[in-house]
Amino acid sequence: MSPAPLRHYIEGDWRLRKESPLLDVLNPATAAPLARVPLSSKEEVDEAVQAAHKAFPAWRATPVTERIGHLFRLKQLLEERAEDLARTITNECGKTFRESLGELRRGIENVEVAIGSPILMQGVNNEDVARGIDEHMIRQPLGVTAAITPFNFPGMIPLWFLPYAVATGNCFILKPSERVPVTSARLFDLIDACDFPPGVLQLVHGGKDAVEALLDHPLVRAVSFVGSTPVARYVYGRAAAAGKRAQCQGGAKNPVVIMPDADMDMTTQIMADSAFGCAGQRCLAASVAVTVGAAGKEFAERIAEAAASRKVGYGLDDAVQMGPVISGQSKARVEGLIETGAQDGARILVDGRGKQVEGYEDGYFLFPSVLSDIPPGSTLSRIEVFGPVLSLCHVETLDEAIRFVNDGPYGNMACIFTSSGAHARQFRHEADAGNIGVNIGVAAPMAFFPFSGWNESFFGDLHAQSRHGVEFYTQTKVVVERWPSEWTRAF
Ligand code: NAD
Questions:
Q1: What is this structure's pTM?
Q2: Which of 55, 153, 298, 426 is most buried, judging by how many CB atoms fall within 10 Å of its CB?
Q3: Which residues are catalytic?
Q4: Of all protein residues, whose CA lies closest to atom 36 belonging to ligand 1?
């Protein structure tokens, strides 16, 4: 029997039109159907936008202290239901239960930071810019805002945006990835229990048509996007052409430089977690290790051993360290890229293809792979793989390694492993990426810092999270003010 279809959450009400096409959502570990997701039409998106537009005047007039009261409740419910939500994430996205709990923690931290909005959205002022004249800059919400999110962090990424948008007085529409819509549905069950006024927060399922309806809708003022680079670029262009604010985070190809003076035990362990954690489906996954001088041979041997011994399986099973990739199509694509790497002259040190997990033969499992001697400029040295594959290339100096890093088209993250402060400093100063790790494998900014992708990894100027989130969701108004009095009239 097919699972019941999911519904949209519009104006505080769960809705579904009979004629909506439905797409199966599969558990990537079993290929079994988990849910059916409706693909909304332009009309359904319009319903959500109109409801948000209607709710906006009262919501923006609600004191910020009251608005964050609803977020305190949401934080409490997220804490209470974290394990249920984490199981849902694992079942629809494939990552391990521990990884699912970890991403939820990062999401909850954004709710906590947004609760600081009474301070974060404060303006600035000067008294007496001229005699008897004061000037103030205040922050006001935009109106209807929307976020379009990817499959790989269904618990965390909606919370990069939603709490900041509503805390600052906007109404907000989430369009999650149609591949992982169940986590968002469960998140909105909790939102429903937080007594937000109808229309303030809405959930609209769907794919490209729903995205385009949001981008073209004249009442949507701002769009946040996270996903692959071609779609991020397209969304940014279309949103900007329609006069909207946009912040669009794209894909990545994250290089990690390994110096001969790095602590090899620590480096190997951290690099294995970075490259193979979440089955490599992280925008901050280490994708190319650039070994320098004597680090080459030792790191290659150690990482190959770590890759080959990683326990792969169903994410809810104890001791499993890595789950499946998201789909059969994704698995085939990554297998094809390994083949391309080999044809371009790379050596396959560990081949994760063609292996099965007992009891889960239908799942989209791909074991960790390591390829060495990647030729500079080849496909594998530049393309985002988004699977459990680490490529190794070798250079003789830190300067050459930094040149390799800066030649890449992306700029989401670059890391260095070293015990030298001078090497670390040079790297931090010169590497052309917005998130830098020093002896860190996944340099994910905390919620109170911006998630700072650069180049092909980001289109826009204000990033997700932190003060950037507050600035993105507010417009500044400057007021120049004179109140004539006996005293000022004298001038
Ligand atoms: P995706 O680009 O396929 O989809 C992202 C969203 O865009 C989804 O909601 C989807 O419905 C929508 N979409 C897809 N195709 C579209 C189209 N042609 N027109 C309009 N909308 C469309 O991305 P994905 O596969 O879900 O996620 C993985 C990608 O996201 C990777 O490239 C990863 O690096 C990137 N990512 C980036 C960050 C970051 O912070 N930079 C974080 C997480 C994921």
A1: 0.97
A2: 153
A3: 283
A4: 227
